[in-house]
Amino acid sequence: DEIPTVVGIFSAFGLVFSVSLFAWICCQRKSSKSNKTPPYKFVHVLKGVDIYPENLNSKKKFGADDKNEAKNKSAMPKSSLHLDLEKRDLNGNFPKTTPKTQSSPDLENSSPKHFAERKKDSVSPDSLKSITSLSSEDKQDKLGTLFFSLEYNFEKKAFVVNIKEARGLPAMDEQSMTSDPYIKMTILPEKKHKVKTRVLRKTLDPAFDETFTFYGIPYSQIQDLTLHFMILSFDRFSRDDVIGEVLIPLAGIELSEGRLLMDREIIKRNVRKSSGRGELLISLCYQSTTNTLTVVVLKARHLPKSDVSGLSDPYVKVNLYHDKKRISKKKTHVKKCTPNAVFNELFVFDIPCEGLDDISIEFLVLDSDRGSRNEVIGRLTLGSSAEGTGGEHWKEICEYPRRQIAKWHMLCDG
């Protein structure tokens, strides 16, 4: 009789010990898992209410006709969690009288360059009034402006993109004269990271304020990436309408100093393909101490096809002018049979005068042909008197010396 009793006691103690050990192991795993870096590719931080295309039936947060609920909201005590949401109007946007860029503490740390650019390029109420007075053809050309910020977290080795807002979008719904905008973002060229914002109902000035954090992207690879923003308007009954797109090459953008606030004009989709002459990606850096200009011919894309062979053999000829007199010339290597050439060739020019006021650079994209004279595919001029992106690029390198600045430029007829 004693043996079964002893066995039962030892079995009970063994069971209690096993249960305690299992509970301790579970607690240890849970604590270690909470301190571990998340394994997913990106984290999406959304300030406000989630409104995705499948949840557009919910009009409690952004319904323009529900005035009673808006009154009840103002009577409720404000909490820190919904502080940003309650500052928005019934369409989900922040009031224009108090811009977000001035009230947000994060934007106070942004570089003065991009803050000045935003002041220069932002759409004021007066400009919006002037836009409404334009003809219907001019209205279609104005697709609005996208505001966003870029940052790199060196501790977590993460690339952070914050899509803040868009202003002055065109109305895609002719009946209500408004849109239901949202944004898709892709990191090129690998297209591994594809994200999208929520849909904001019935607004032409959507304030998204959504942060996307991408892990596993080394800082050394940031210069090789390109951000592609596609601005769309949600349509419940058919395919979503494409408003426009924004393409941001990260080559030459310095993120080591902190967050950068940027804004870009929204262009028509595939407008760079329909131009006919193609585009050229150029990076410039003016060294005021040594009075030199560094020119990097990076890439060319969407070059027109040759009539004979079907593909061109492009190369770029770079001419430096001082008072309309050519003082130096360089050229890249020839890239065989491609409409999208990658050159990555650097040239350093000595400037014979102080400053860049009397200096200009001409880029000639030519098709190499051994049997006859090389044909000019397209031409690009950068200088203080240049128009469009050429003049803007030149102004930036003059204002910010010792900084490498890269931009895509449309090629003109040769």
CATH superfamily name of one domain?
C2 domain
Largest sheet: 5 strands, antiparallel
Roughly what fraction of the amino acids lie in strands? Answer: 25-35%
CATH arch. level architecture of one domain: Sandwich
Family: Belongs to the synaptotagmin family.
Subcellular location: Cytoplasmic vesicle membrane; Endomembrane system
Keywords: Calcium, Cytoplasmic vesicle, Membrane, Metal-binding, Phosphoprotein, Repeat, Transmembrane, Transmembrane helix
GO molecular function: calcium ion binding; calcium-dependent phospholipid binding; clathrin binding; phosphatidylserine binding; SNARE binding
Overview of the molecule:
Residues 142-263, 276-409 form the C2 domain. Belongs to the synaptotagmin family. InterPro entries: C2_dom (IPR000008), C2_domain_sf (IPR035892), Synaptotagmin (IPR001565). One of its GO terms (cellular component) is plasma membrane. It is a single chain. The protein has 414 residues and is of the alpha+beta class. Among the domains are: 144-273, Immunoglobulin-like (Sandwich); 278-411, Immunoglobulin-like, CATH 2.60.40. Helix content is 22%, strand content 33%. The chain is built from nine helices and 17 strands. The protein has a five-stranded antiparallel sheet with strand order 1-6-3-2-9. It has a four-stranded antiparallel sheet with strand order 5-4-7-8, with no helix packed on it. A four-stranded antiparallel sheet has the order 14-11-10-17, covered by helices on one side. A hairpin with a 5-residue loop joins β4 and β5. The longest helix has 34 residues, at 2-35. The chain is elongated.
